[in-house]
Amino acid sequence: MLRGIRNASSNWLGKTLMTIVMGLLIVAFGIWGIADIFHGFGQSALATVGGTEISTEQFRQIYNDRLQQIGRQFGRPLPPDQVRALGLDRQILQQVIAEAALDEDAQRKGLKVSDEEIGRQIKSDPTFKGANNAFDAARFAGLIRQLGYTEQRYVAEQRNMALRRQIVGTMTAGVEPSKTLLEALNRFQKEQRTIDYVKLGAAQAGTIDPPTADQLSGYFDAHKVQFRAPEYRKMAFVVLTPEEVAKWTAVSDDDARKIYEERKDKLSTPERRQLRQIMFPNVTDAQAAREKIVGGASFDDIARERGLAASDIDLGTISKSEIIDPAIANAAFSIKSDEVSQPTQGRFGVALIKVGRIEPGNQPTYESVAEKLKRDAALDRARAEINNLHNKMEDERGGGASVVEAAKKVGLSAVTIEATDRSGRAPDGKPVSGIPQGVDLIAQAFASDVGVDNETLQLGNNGFIWFDVLGVTPSRDRTLDEVKDKVEARWREDQISSRLMTRATDTIRKLEQGGKLADEAASLGLKVESASAIKRDDTTATLPAAVVAAVFRAAKDAAGQAPGTGNDEWFIFRVSDVKVPTLDVASDETKKLREGIQRGLSDEYVGQYIVKLEAEIGTKINQAAVAQITGANSNF
């Protein structure tokens, strides 16, 4: 429990908690308030929460919108079966029901939010502010459009969220963790221990003779499931991505040279100059200042005479195209380094310009960029061809062609994997090569079967995978002869582990009877080592997690034991010191800890309130409609 509270206190994003109306918190608790299947719904009703009806189209829109948002976070759309496997369909339903319950509660309580307040909240949202830190209407419209909202729908949703925040904020106001809870969690996090220990290895297990035939056979019979051959699948698949298509898209030298000529300016690195500029109201003043410079005054002297700071005259190191005023640009790039231009009439006045450091431009030759131009051109052509090839593959598949047949007709290459288990390994135990990344193709294959017309898988933003399961080799028990070497190795490992545990247990008993760890270590041919300032979550190559956990289960001066990272490691230790941290209530760390616990307690209250609220106002769900929208084959 303490570990859970501690993790919660360190991982919450506090300010976003209310913004998404407690997000997954409501999801987590909302399920307990959802009733079983009810009948008597209209054709368009998916659920009723009190007097609020959620239509099937309303839920479909919310469901699709949120899946799109989640897909953007993953970097790719999630297929329906993966959505259900992750439980996202149930979570979205539960969140919608919980939000509807809070909306119904706000209505019954007569809570209101004015249009002016909603407008103020939207305009003060940093997300919608432009470069000048002011509300940007175009940015607002673009961002909500990306999220699938109209302005009216977004405003309505913000109004509902504001009312929900009123309810949740009132309910959780004044939540404060007790000092006892703070002390307990502070100790759990910061307590430190010091131990003396010895590490037993294979040498302490003694000589282990090879097993007899009966021992090996008996061990194999007792552990047969560990040596069982996994299920294997034979599969064929086709990957269609711009990168794959580009591999067999040839670009001629003539085409590449045309691209080079078209992009020559973009491929080149323009000359850049360090420029400073002083503006004058007229040519007479500018000419007088230039004559002073010719007479020995510096450019900085003239700037100071005009009350200008260094930052006021510095244009930075820029290219000619970065200068807005053509007259100024031409003047700045027509003189040499350390020269001052003649008075130049620009759009905003008359300027004197001084050139500092000059960084020469560079124009690459065709030969130096030819390969990259060809790759880029092939990729561009491939992107344009993707949809056409995708449609052709879908047409062939729709006509009953297998993946291999369809690929051959379309001109794509199919890959056949003769056998792979669920972990992506071949029968020889080596990883299967050629499996595309970015989608769990093997999991999809093991969720399918021979002869099944599988859904096209999305790969990234513009890639596709088609696959067929061509054969299934069922899991089976192997014979002892097939895995004799592995069985003997596993038997030996278990023998070592068993002997080390027995030796450690005997040593602990002697220590408890007054023996000294140094003496026992010497009898085993080992040396005592020490480790200090160990915290509960410390895991190092020296002290594995199991050892640290055992150390914190033992009292001060008590001895203990724990396995290491392998069968040939065992630790014996004695806790020599325990440092209990004091609670500094004024420290930033304790304040952060308190805030985390406050959020956790607030979550508990909100979750319980939603459960009670749903039970009081009544919640009914048309599970058949939910299953139709989410593609579920069974009820929740």
Automatic annotation (TrEMBL):
* Entry keyword Isomerase: yes
Q: Which organism is it from?
A: Nitrobacter winogradskyi (Nitrobacter agilis)
The protein's name is Peptidyl-prolyl cis-trans isomerase D
Q: What is its EC number?
A: 5.2.1.8
Q: Which UniProt keywords apply?
A: Isomerase
Lineage of the species this protein comes from:
Bacteria, Pseudomonadati, Pseudomonadota, Alphaproteobacteria, Hyphomicrobiales
State the top-level EC class.
Answer: isomerase
